[in-house]
UniProtKB/TrEMBL annotation, chain A:
It comes from Thermanaerothrix daxensis. InterPro entries: FAD/NAD-bd_sf, FAD/NAD-binding_dom, SQRD. GO terms for molecular function: oxidoreductase activity. The lineage of its organism: Bacteria, Bacillati, Chloroflexota, Anaerolineae, Anaerolineales. This is Oxidoreductase. It holds the Pfam family Pyr_redox_2. Gene3D superfamilies: FAD/NAD(P)-binding domain. Residues 3-127 form the FAD/NAD(P)-binding domain.
Automatic annotation (TrEMBL), chain B:
The keyword Cytoplasm applies. One of its GO terms (biological process) is tRNA wobble position uridine thiolation. This is Sulfur relay protein DsrC. Gene3D superfamilies: 3.30.1420.10, DsrC-like protein, C-terminal domain (1.10.10.370).
Amino acid sequence: MKKIVILGAGTAGTIVANRFKRLLDFGRWEVTLVDPDPIHYYQPGFLFIPFRMYTPKDVIKPKRDFIDPPLRFIQSKVEEIDAEHRRVHLADGSVLPYDFLIIATGVDIYPEETPGMLDGEWGKTIHSFYTLPTSLALRDTLRSWKGGRLVVNVVDNPIKCPVAPLEFLMLADWYFHQQGMRDRVEIIYATPLSGAFTKPTASKLLGELLESKNIKVEPDFMIERVDPDARKIVSYDEREIEYDLLVTIPLNKGAEVIGKSGLGNELNLVPVDPHTLRAKAHPNIFVLGDASDAPASKAGATAHFSIDLFTEHFLDYVETGELPPYFDGHANCFIETGFGKGLMIDFNYTQEPLPGRYPLPGIGPLTLLQESEFNHWGKLMFHWMYWHILLRGMELPLPATMSMAGKWKV
Amino acid sequence: MPTRVIAGKTVEVDAEGFMVNPNEWNEAIAIELAKEEGIEELTPEHWKVINFCRQSAGATGKAPTLRTITAGTGISTKELFALFPKGPAKKVARIAGLGKPEGCV
Ligand SMILES: Cc1cc2nc3c(=O)[nH]c(=O)nc-3n(C[C@H](O)[C@H](O)[C@H](O)COP(=O)(O)OP(=O)(O)OC[C@H]3O[C@@H](n4cnc5c(N)ncnc54)[C@H](O)[C@@H]3O)c2cc1C
């Protein structure tokens, strides 16, 4: 009996487990998932909660709905990965040996890494929306907010869903219009990047979109600390921005167990070969989803594309020990832009996002880097596909590697 | 790839002005690139950071992030911002002849 242990049953862990279910002969293989949390969260939905577009019941389901026999599920925290002896130690005291280990423990927010952030104003004038409780607290604050200066700040990169802060800004613009108070709100985006986004074309087009919505960008802002009493954020080069309401994307780090087990970098991300997602230090450990240091977008869509290709090559690898460089870093994301519209970007390790049409060149129906109502419906449809198709490990009719057809240079 | 002449030497650069081939780099190039970034004189502290970044990139194949630099040199983030104003990780990568640091996708 060969044993596969999957750490973390979030987006990546659940998808890969359900792929294994179709792929493997369970007379010869055993697949075990470990996760302490019985709930599966649809994290993209956290963005909509502060604006009351979604309620908690839209974003949570029991993990058990997606994990059936012959898959085994253990509800417990992983305390240590002993890569040398090929086994993991769980919080409930049990020890799981493995032949292949899949690390899918994702990343989480660490507000305690920024001085001042948790000092008395967290959940009051300082908020986030990257977890269910923080998005609910922000919803409650927004409900009675009288207006003033809203500052959105990203502490450092990488973060999961790098477009989520931009979406939050544009939805906030729409929401305050809707509430009849946009003229009483100033919106500022303080980012450690030199512009609205990372790659040049998208940064320019998204920057112009923010400007057209009267959202100001403060670039190269690397936050050193929050002064919760004076209500200002201070950067390392001593710029200060005052706020009435601060919405932060705190430092994103991998799970503590990664660092503790000596498998991670300074952000507890596991170093991997970006084209195979195999751990550099251990040939029988793969890292899927957000938990690795691969320079791909940390997004559910990326996880899905890479898992498509990983499972295609897995059995060959078991047999021959050989792996081709199958993954190109393909990512695509819907970007909500408010007022019932959205846009979409499609890119990989080497090709930056460009305008065009997707998935059918010249036709779409989705438009790349251009607002349309259809893209907004695409994002809402993705919600349904996530629960019913993606997590269950079924194929989407989309190619897993990126194509240049249908894109144009600007 | 476009090329340009820095400190009398022709080197390959990318669209954002980062050198493509770290082997084409030398100290005279660093001094000139630093001036372009508004740093008139490279002090021993600057060199400590530049040398660390070149070593780190030699080992990993990519320019280090701010966190890697602070952990590796013992120089605090605050001091790094004083040495290389605005975006230290990006600035030092350019001066050290390395590609643009990843990590922000
Ligand atoms: C606000 C927001 C908006 C987003 N929008 C989008 C979007 O529009 N499109 C998109 O594609 N992506 C989006 N994402 C990103 C997407 O949700 C993540 O990229 C995706 O969930 C990553 O999957 P993962 O399996 O790597 O991690 P996760 O799904 O986060 O799962 C990690 C799992 O590991 C478990 N775990 C952690 N530590 C341990 C431990 N010690 N032992 C055992 N288990 C452990 C956790 O309980 C969790 O279940 C968004 C994210 C956020 C926060």
